[in-house]
Amino acid sequence: MKHRYHQLTKWMKGHKRYYFLGLFILFTLQYFRTLPPLFVQHIIDSIFDDKASNLPIIIQNLIAADGVQLQLLYVAIFSVLFTLFRVIFFFLHRVLIAFFAENVSYNMRNKLYDHLQNLSFSYHSNAETGDLIQRTTTDVDTYRMFIGEQLVEVVRMTFLMVFTIFQMSRMHVPMTLISIIVAPIIFVIASVYFVYVKKVFKRVEEAEGTMTTTLQESVTGIRVVKAFGNERFEIDRFDEKSHVFRKESYTLIRLMAWFWGGTDFLIFGQYLLTASFGIYFVVMGQLGAGQFIAFLSLLGLIVWPIRQLGRIIGDFGKTIVSLDRLDEIVLTPTEHDQDRGEYPEIKGNITFKSVGFQFEDDAKPLLKNISFDVEAGQTVAIVGKTGSGKSTLLNLMVRLLDHQEGQILFDGIAIEDINKKWLRKHVGIILQEPFLYSKTVFENIAIMNQKAAKDTIFSAARVASVHDDILNFEAGYDTVVGERGVTLSGGQKQRVAIARMLLDNKPVLIFDDSLSAVDTETDIQIRRALMNQWKNTTVFIITHRIATAMEADKIIVLDKGEIIETGNHESLLRENGVYAQLWDIQTSIVYDFKTRKEGSE
Amino acid sequence: MTKILDKKALKEQLARHVDLSKSQMTGSMGGRRGGGPGRMAMGAKPKHAKETVKRLLGYLKNYRIAIAFVTILLVAATGLNLLIPTLFSIALDDYIIPRAYTGVYLIGIYVIGIALINGFVRFLSRFVMVRISQKIVKKIREQAFSKLMKAPISYTDKQGSGDIVSRLSNDVELISASLGQTVLEVINSLIILVGAAFLMVRLNWRLSLVVFAFIPLLAIFTVFIGKKTRKGFKEQQLHLAALNGLIEENITGLKVVKLYNQEPVFTEEFRQENDQLKKAGFMAQFYSGIIWPFVLFVNNFIYLAVIAVGAILYVTLGPLAVTIGQIAGVSQYSRQFIMPINNLAQLFNALMQGIAGAERVFELIDTDSEYDHDGTAVIDRFEGNIEFDDVSFGYSDDIQVLKNISFKAKQGEVIAIVGPTGGGKTTTIKLLNRFYDVNQGTIKIDNIDIKDIQIDELRKRVGVVLQDTHLFKGTVFENIHYGDFTAAYDTVIDASKMANAHDFISKLPKGYDTEVSEGGQNFSQGERQLISIARTFLNNPDLLILDEATSNIDTRTEAKIQASMEKLIQKRTSIVIAHRLQTIQKADTILVIHEGKLIESGNHQSLLEQKGFYHQLYYAQFAQ
After folding, report:
1. What CATH number does residue B67 fall under?
2. Whose CA, among A49, B143, B273, B312, lies 20 to 30 Å from B475?
3. First-to-last CA distance in chain B?
4. What does pTM read for this prediction?
């Protein structure tokens, strides 16, 4: 319970006072809200009938006057001023709550975002992007709605009911009991209904979802549909989903109709009951006509909103779920929490000593007993099937993942003793699917060195053989890359990523199959240019192309997480193992029968 | 409004530019997008509102009795509801002030009775209308989908799948909302507006004038604030979308962010966007918070004005001019105006959106079906003699993608099409199964013009294996079965074995029952291709169109694909867009297509001897 309370309130830090002030105003307003029916009572009972007024004494004194007309005028003026006062404070209350809620969610989003950014790569490789986005937006918004609207509404209704019952009881106690008799019943019905209807809602949404998926698939796969002449099949399938959707919607509509209609009926029943008893009490002389009318209007303050109360309280569960999901993020330690910070000079001598790695929830290790030595300036090619552990190996070198067994040494220093950011600054990786930001091509290259001069950027692009491509774009270097760089071809993206890396001199450089979408010739061209510029850089190349691997000083063949062969091209061919086999296959099939000028698909 | 839209516009521009150059270069299947009607989403105005409304009314025809019934009931109930203030005024004048309370009770019962009737009618009318709208919308949706399936590929290519899906989901939803709710509410608001005015004037015309004096102020203000509020929420929505985009981009690119130590840059960017969202959110709340207090206050002010004027009238003209009951009655009527004035502007907007949505859906329904002028020849089997005779084609009238292509393929032959990307290779094969129709010339199979053959029959007999294959959501088995629904289980497995797909499928945890996710994303490109080859084996076509893979599929899968394609080719006339030397060398005829023209043809040896374009191409690519 205490935990829940903390969970609910911890995000409010720093702005609570606005909230409490807002809620306090709300409290006062609810009291004032119960007064207008009493003005009516005052007019009818006190002004016309000389009976007692139920208005608070202070107000009675304020509007006291001689003569019916003057009294009426005072009531009217006072009620307008009173309304003005209510309205202003209501507005103030809303602004306060809105200010509070927006600030809280602003802070939440910032905190979540910061935290997400600093979470380890292994966390992110297990998390789905869509899910994380949903947490930072939808879940935050769920909480915002909770503190900004739902909780406020519940508090408001509670206050209102308490004051309403209070005002009623000041007039006539038995009538009060009679007038609220149906409220608990409606509340229970509403609570049950909203739990149930949520399930039906979900079914409708699912039915709609399947229908839309079917639609989407039929549209994107229209060529296949037509190629096999299966239009009829698709139409029947869609009609079926459309039918299910309508059927589920009917259920929902029927349910909603029964609930709203039924509770309406109950509420009118309540009015009838109150009216009948009211008449009785008036005839008996226990109740004034004004009080009778006041009862009927006060009644409305309780019975109508109580239906919503069921829903709002039902929604509280959602908030808890959202907060749990947020806590899952925030309570995960970031990768920098325990980072040891040494900043040694990195030259590029790298040693792996029986290194092993395994994801916690995996049954099998991804890497086992990996050992090798690389001297500064050497080029190492890593060859192996998809899933053989090549990328894992690279991720260990930049500590996107942390190895569990053995040792990785950079110039004799254990990798875990080097500050992560420092390490990443000196080890450059070019990914197979390079990520370009939705910024201009220029900015995408300059990202590695914001201060780089135009010429530096151009020459980097030239080395990466992408300068001419860029100039061919409509806006040249100012061309904005689409979301995830969709408007560039795979080869162009890879080359931009290479250009980006060239801005900064790195002692260690890793190509993670990063020339796969570039044709063989451009591939060679780029690598030659690179080797010239960076003679002292240690280079790792992951590749499918044997033609690329063969030039390396050292070739490592990985299979199922283990090194099965090492050596150079000649020695490995002599071994006649897996590498030699791959060499055979690839030299007999020739790829890339394309024009040269394009160098991409 | 600003940032996202700019980005979007830029992106569209860019996409169009790239696409244009692409469609000329590659003519890749499915690459053509953009174009289509610009979707400025919100506030889109219908172009032919009248016709569209007429058509919608046509759908309502079958339900006219129910609708008439509901409308009459609704008018009656709302009318009764409007009597309540009059009843109050009577209660005050005739019973409360003379202290004859029994009458008050009677009126009380009337009021409750009216409320009950009103509640019931409202409930009934909404229920009936929602049901009717659901029925109609279902019909429209199914009509649209059916037409979509029957429309030629060029339609889907031109519109883009996003646009089409949106027509069938969002736009249909707009229609549904309009029919089910908006129309009723418009009717209701209008009745209240007119009825309240009428009854108020009847009750006391002098006092009504006071109310009428305030209405313009109220109307202007609510409409103004309403606009501000909507704009506020829209802005909030836009900033939220921008923020989502930022998070998505950063998280998908997180590896890069981390590797390049870019955290501070993105944190700053996020802060800024987040800040804007906060401000927009606050403003939206601010404006939406003004309405209620304002309306409440003006209401009360009108109340006061009515009472004041009433009092003056009473004093100067006496009880014949005004009664206390009338003052109360008129002031209550004045409240009835607020809601409809506030609502009507919005409702009208919603209605227009519904009509615009309907218009877009009808546009789809009115698209020509490619079956309208379907051929009549029914083919049992093709021998497999293909003839292109002087074929020219362009996606649009002004740009010819293929120019005067003529060639023949005899039964069982393999034709390899080679040439630079974008030269028209893919377009050539699109014509054979009539995804697109030639502009000039004829294509014949076994001496029959393909335009004379029933489209479905033609396509079933012409198998296509493309580079990027589409798998449907469902099991692996279902995906292969798609090639021939009549096939027995064992036949499907056999086809899969023929395609070299059986091995990897049986190794999957659930084998053939493994679920394929949307678009087949849980399978590698190579695996997807193997499945699609199995599908084609099952279909057992007489002619084949193959597009060899160029992208990097891993070596072993590639070899498997190659082997199964070779099996597929056997005994079938095949046209292959070739990338592999082996395929090219083995082909009976090689067609070299460049810039839309067939520039050379012959076998490998003879083409080399010609020392022409093919010779150049060959030495540039294959000879080391």
Report:
1. 1.20.1560.10
2. B143
3. 56
4. 0.72
